[in-house]
Amino acid sequence: GYRVSLQGNVFGRNHTYMTFPEYNPRKHIKLDPPLNIQSNATASKCQIWWSVWNVPWYLAEILQYELQYKEYSMSWEVALNKTLPSSLPQVEIEATELRSGTAYAARVRCKVSENENSYHSQWSEWSQTTVFQRADVPKVSEKIRNTKTMQFLFIPLSFGTLLYLFWNCKLSSRRQKVSPALTFPRQLLSSSHSIVCTMGILR
After folding, report:
1. Entry's Gene3D superfamilies (predicted)?
2. Torsion of CA 182, 186, 189, 195, to 10 degrees
3. pLDDT tens-digit profile of 146-162?
């Protein structure tokens, strides 16, 4: 620990002012802002990553980050904030949180995690910004849509056609079985009438 005091001369007399009787540097850290922030947006998500500079390795492992992003044309006062759960210098934003065709700006800052007891820090300044835009979801062409529609209708249409042919075949077979029984008496009567007429002539 350290003792911090200020000295000054007032009306020709030296005065000492005690500022911190016990000052521990590890409890008063302010880190440099993250740098090299970059982004890559697709139709499903946006990936953002960055790096930190002049940070010892034992602090880099216990850092926490806060991401801030907004529509590019809006003010930072209405930006959305995300405190990231991991000390990894990266984050993903789901596409459902972004409007299609709208440009966004994002920035990030860091500090020692609040869960850490050995060190304490305040937030760093904000990093430079990165600009990204969600990619549009590709539209299905009219030809592909029509093909899918035909595939969807093919099964019920095929089933209906087969059912129609089945019933037609069944009805045709019934007619073929019934016709001889119905025509037989008529043929028989016609033959009998011919025989009777012939016999009458012979007589």
Report:
1. Immunoglobulins (2.60.40.10)
2. -120
3. 565 566 655 666 666 76
**Residue 114's domain is classified under what CATH number?**
2.60.40.10
**Residue-wise pLDDT tens digits, 21-70:** 777 888 889 999 999 999 999 989 999 999 998 899 999 999 999 999 99
Which sign, positive or negative, has the C-alpha torsion 154, 155, 157, 159? positive
Contact 32, 53 (CB under 8 A): yes
- Specify if 98 maps to a domain: yes
Identify the CA nearest to 135 among candidates 178, 197, 183, 93: 93
Percent of the chain with pLDDT over 70: 67
Of 92, 94, 108, give the one whose Cα is nearest residue 34: 108
**How many folded domains does the chain comprise?**
1
In-domain check, residue 58: yes
β-sheet bridge partners, residue 105: 70, 131
| Residues 6+ away with beta carbon under 8 Å from 105 | 69, 70, 71, 72, 129, 130, 131
